[in-house]
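Q: What would this chain look like folded?
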Amino acid sequence: MSAFIVSSDTFDALVTAWDFLTPKGEDPGFGIRRLMSFKFSPEESSKGLLQNLRNMLIKENCASVRCRYPIGYNSDSVTDVLNRLMEIKYSEIGEVNEWCINEQWGYILMLVDCYTYQSCEGSDWKASDSYEFCQSIETQIMKRLRKTIPEQEPENLWGGYKRPVAETGAISLSALWDRP
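A: My prediction, written as structure tokens:
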């Protein structure tokens, strides 16, 4: 594997997607506030929360690069990039909101996949808040995708999937084994 620091826009895009996918009318930190190792005050603004989430993603990504390249990689350059990225204020990306509105989940899942691949080098990645952040985006997308399955199908798909029988009058061999 390799690791690199993703673009500033990638961090903003992930936070924008998370903000869009967060159920409205609930705690703005749904899926994250309970997972964070640091606490947010109740009066913290939504913008402040989103900036903190962005910074969390940056730190994890930079830590992964440091972990992947402990020797021979200029640690000062990673620190410089980290500091420059942390100075940039979160900016919502309208294109990401359009993807969400149009349910173009593949774009968002690719961003999550790229970020995850570049940030997973630490030994505690699966215990990290950034991992939980990515999981919460994927979970929210899965909930939306499940709504596209016809009502009669979910129980058929939950561990008990069976292929539909062909309606051509042909008998499949597997159907013969099910007979007494």
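Residues 34-39 have pLDDT under 50 and may be disordered.
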